[in-house]
């Protein structure tokens, strides 16, 4: 087997470094793409949750402003209406 001269070693080293840079760059780009999708999904979920909370809060405020339907004796329980069956 013939030994490698300096020029061959420089080419092998440069090729190895170039391939390592390409590999690491592609891994980094993939990680950034996955992270950006996760961030966008989280932001969309957060916006949806914020809208749901605002709707629930508005419904609660509307219910708070409604007057209570009090019974003649001042209680708020609904009366039990019983229907007697005939024989």
Describe the structure.
It is a single chain. The chain is an all-alpha fold. The chain has one helix and no strands.
Key traits:
87 residues, 69% helix
The major sheet is characterized as:
none
How many helical stretches? 1
Averaging pLDDT over every residue, what do you get?
A: 89
Q: Approximately how much beta-strand content do the residues carry?
A: under 5%
Radius of gyration: 36 Å
| Number of DSSP strand runs | 0
Order of helices and strands: H
Write down the overall geometry: rod-shaped
Helix content: 55-70%
**Low-confidence spans: pLDDT under 50, at least 5 residues?**
none
Cα-to-Cα separation, first versus last residue: 114 Å
| Classification by helices and strands | mainly alpha
Produce the secondary structure layout:
Layout: H1 6-65
Summarize the structure in short.
The protein is mostly helical.
